[in-house]
Fold this protein.
Amino acid sequence: MNDTAATNADPLFSGLNDRSITAIPATVEKQRYMTSVAPKAANPGRWVEQPRLPIPTGEHAVIECQGNIHVIAGYARHRFDANFHQVFDSKSRTWSLKAPFPVLGNHVAGVSVGSKIYTFGGFIEQNRCPHSRCFVYDTAADTWTPIAGLSRPRGAISAIVLDGKIHLLGGRDVRSVEWHEVYDPAANKYSDRASMRGSTGTQPFVGQRDHMGVAVVDGKIHAIAGRMDSYDFNTSLNAVYDPQTDGWSFRAPLPTARSGPSCVYINGKIVVFGGEATGRVFGTNEAYDPKSDTWEALTPMALPRHGLHGATCAVIGNMVHVPGGGPVPGGSVQGAYHDAFTFG
């Protein structure tokens, strides 16, 4: 799967199993959901198109590292087990291919710490067959090296850095899980933390979640939306983990329940956009104010998408970059479209 030719020979969109697909199917118009019940923000922001990816991808990791965007693995070129490693240089505004990811697969979680990228787990088949392999990528040397593996194989984990440690939340093995562990890059070891839980002991979503967004605000982790087992069972939970107490609490839920959204903390707000549900792909874009515990509606995505994992999006300056992703529910179509959201 290593392809060193970073060209635009690929179409803007590509079918996973149907090679005749080179554009978004017209039927998606009836599946797009763009609205929100939240009040409109005074500054709703805007979307700005960016240079396209060389290779259309979906269910891939998106990670910012030292001002560059890394797009790793996922569905691509009619396969669910790609290992492409596409990198966007924000200064030259160009894409290139770097050392391929060591595992053919998808739904890889990843984050950056300094000049290195850490990845965790993933699937080797389409949204199933998880593995426990983990790696570190050295951006200067353009090399991948194995690190300690997960004790429990899974994919679609949500990963985020807090105080130099990497928190790994939820994910899926055969079913969604509530596991929460922390990886210490210095020690190359994992430790368990309080598992995710539902806001009540009897609600359907008891904490087992995958395909959710995560963000750090004031030293606490917000785990927002996601699903239990499939997008037939999406949630709007906004659960908050406090490392000081090793406990969970709950804030105002996301107005529009969905899974597979992108989530980021920027300009004092958590911005959540995109995602999927049964028969729907979301352009809905909503922002959470941690100080007032309220949500508001922002400008919807110009092109609704889902299926970005790792950190789910990349912030460079005042722009939230969203490269690739699936423009239809499920994984049947991948995209090379790349745009960015900004409040500016």
Observations:
- DSSP finds no helices and 31 strands in the chain.
- The CA atoms of residues 319 and 342 lie 5 Å apart.
- Confidence is low (pLDDT under 50) at residues 1-6.
- The radius of gyration is 18 Å.
